[in-house]
Amino acid sequence: VSHSKDLLQLNLTRMSAEEEYPDLSQHNNHMAKFLTLDMYKELRGRATSSGFTLEGLIQTGVDNPGHPFIMTVGCVAGDEETYEVFKELLDPVIEDRHGGYKPSDKHKTDLNPANLKGGDDLDPNYVLSSRVRTGRSIRGFCLPPHCSRGERRAVEKLSIEALDSLSGDLKGKYYALKNMTDAEQQQLIDDHFLFDKPVSPLLLASGMARDWPDARGIWHNDNKTFLVWVNEEDHLRVISMQKGGNMKEVFNRFCTGLTKIETLFKDRGHAFMWNEHLGYVLTCPSNLGTGLRAGVHVKLPNMSKHAKFEEVLKRLRLQKRGTGGVDTAAVGGVFDISNADRLGFSEVELVQMVVDGVRLLVDMEKKLEKGQSIDDLMPAQK
Amino acid sequence: MPFGNTHNNFKLNYKVEEEFPDLSKHNNHMAKVLTKEIYGKLRDKQTPSGYTLDDVIQTGVDNPGHPFIMTVGCVAGDEESYEVFKDLLDPVISDRHGGYKATDKHKTDLNFENLKGGDDLDPNYVLSSRVRTGRSIKGFTLPPHNSRGERRLIEKLSVEALTSLDGEFKGKYYPLKSMTDAEQEQLIADHFLFDKPVSPLLTCAGMARDWPDARGIWHNDNKTFLVWVNEEDHLRVISMQKGGNMREVFRRFCTGLQRIEEIFKKHNHGFMWNEHLGYILTCPSNLGTGLRGGVHVKLPKLSTHPKFEEILTRLRLQKRGTGGVDTASVGGVFDISNADRLGSSEVYQVQLVVDGVKLMVEMEKKLEKGEAIDSMIPAQK
């Protein structure tokens, strides 16, 4: 635990712990489950060497008691050290969120697309699009809830340098949010690439929208199948996507691009934040490990109304979202189906679950269309 | 505040040019004043409670402009902010408050008997009258920066003070977090309830943190005097009633405010005040009296007259929609109030409202009859 003398001048402990302890009585998020008064007492005097404190960590969870669709995490990291300095709180949160992942567990990274079996033949009559995203944090900089404008701009500058040097299928262009033309903006919206200033109070309350749109931007390749968001919820969000059901190709491009980008950053003296316990270190504890969400937009009008839909998803270790992403509802029987896990499984394993699981869901949909039962198709718990 | 001051020293690793905000698209008082030089001079400073320049300006960086009003774009985190960051705040204050100089003195006058008239605004036009101000309690930091412990203690002190009031001021406190549905509906119906701020001007300044912890509403049994605890300021004090008797509203305002101040002083927590800035509040726009005295008034004809804005300017009044700041008017009914806060007293500002509204109602009546109002256009006050 580092304390610099300068940081101790901060009024971290204005009044007693009892007087400062948040009221979490109406709350239902991972942070609220674990932050007892005793834990608050223990952690509130600490700060990481960049000055991130417990209050910064938990503010979003205090301000947002719960969410109608999902159990939110309720805390964020301000820098890489956060996960160490505040481990008393974050280890139980991580364990609760990531299916019992223990502080002594090791996380496996596998970005070799050759290890994925199949995935090139999901039925495009049902699977409308396929997408894989992850996040990456650049070591040496604070994370979006805490970073300064100077840091954010340095992250942007490094990112542009690295991305501009990509070639071939990955050759592309950067569009800074703050000086985008109307035409560019419209095109990015039409391509479903544009990200807006966050409106979710979960994000706003953590401070990650400060100084918007300064140093935020979107890079994408000329083919519009690979894009990178700079300085949104994480330093980088890397996305590979295309219409139809060829998840194998999407994942190939994802791994190839990501590996190239990582090399380019390393060449410039900046590794990605990673360790053998938590895998890739990201802003939200829910995205630790792979940070990977692989998903499809798939038509399941019959399946989604089936009494066992939720159970099937659970057994397949998948989750559903609306087609607008997190915090949205499904439209017209089309669902966003993706892996539920992030940590404790490798990238290949997670994408495999999506490929196999979606294939099964589509088979079930077809059966239900014909009025047939799906009982014999019910999967075991993965 | 969790994300601002805690790594101020860490930010000093970056050069001024690298940290200076991009204000090229901005139109607020802070953006007009803040140069790289001022930023460079102030960025390593903090108040004793740890409030920094970036904290002061965050709301103005995040909110480039506003369609209806020229926003301030900066807030104070504590009483000392106005001293430590005076190189920024003095020019902002001067620009916002009509040239108010760093050496000027502000006059406080809460003697309602000094108001002339004001009891006879025509209730056929003036639907309601209201006076509000804010007060900050000395020894605590302000809403953009205060901790839960401080906010709760402010609430505790406020509730003690308010529940000891009697007579026309006898009333009850309703904490936001334990309000029943019935209480909530009644407070909404009475137009008393304040909600979690949605305006990004406020949320970006950090004043909605921990909502609704230690926030609440106190009002008297008569429903003519209410106090908001821990919204944009420690206290917002409001006197209001239907109709045009602004004199009565102001009498109750002054009387209640002075009683509350006495009780706080007894507990060694006076209100933040100094002879230069008057009452110290979160937003520099509310310094001085912090007073907004206003009416909801029907001006369907006058409001569409080409000289409406000019008249308001000359009368030193401003218009808002009937939902308050950030809203538009509905059905020709406007919220008309004093534009000034600093450099003139409470009595003076309410007098402007009383005299100005009386004139505008007379203009409205003339326009109704199809007559011209040219002879009535006032001189600049």
Automatic annotation (TrEMBL), chain A:
It is an enzyme of class 2 (transferase). Transmembrane segments: none annotated. PROSITE patterns: PHOSPHAGEN_KINASE, PHOSPHAGEN_KINASE_C, PHOSPHAGEN_KINASE_N. The keyword Oxidoreductase does not apply. ATP binds at residues 129-133, 192, 237, 293-297, 321-326. Residues 13-99 form the Phosphagen kinase N-terminal domain. It catalyses: creatine + ATP = N-phosphocreatine + ADP + H(+). GO terms for biological process: phosphocreatine biosynthetic process. Pfam families: ATP-gua_Ptrans (PF00217), ATP-gua_PtransN (PF02807). Keywords: ATP-binding, Kinase, Nucleotide-binding, Transferase. Residues 126-368 form the Phosphagen kinase C-terminal domain. GO terms for molecular function: ATP binding; creatine kinase activity. InterPro entries: ATP-guanido_PTrfase, ATP-guanido_PTrfase_AS, ATP-guanido_PTrfase_cat, ATP-guanido_PTrfase_N, ATP-guanido_PTrfase_N_sf, Gln_synth/guanido_kin_cat_dom. This is creatine kinase. It comes from Amphiprion ocellaris.
TrEMBL record, chain B:
GO terms for biological process: phosphocreatine biosynthetic process. Transmembrane segments: none annotated. Residues 11-98 form the Phosphagen kinase N-terminal domain. Keywords: ATP-binding, Kinase, Nucleotide-binding, Transferase. The keyword GTP-binding does not apply. Gene3D superfamilies: ATP:guanido phosphotransferase, N-terminal domain (1.10.135.10), Glutamine synthetase/guanido kinase, catalytic domain (3.30.590.10). The keyword Glycoprotein does not apply. ATP binds at residues 128-132, 191, 236, 292-296, 320-325. CDD domains: creatine_kinase_like (cd00716). GO terms for molecular function: ATP binding; creatine kinase activity. Residues 125-367 form the Phosphagen kinase C-terminal domain. One of its GO terms (cellular component) is extracellular space. Its EC number is 2.7.3.2. It holds the Pfam family ATP-gua_PtransN. PANTHER family: ARGININE OR CREATINE KINASE (PTHR11547), CREATINE KINASE (PTHR11547:SF62). Belongs to the ATP:guanido phosphotransferase family. This is creatine kinase.
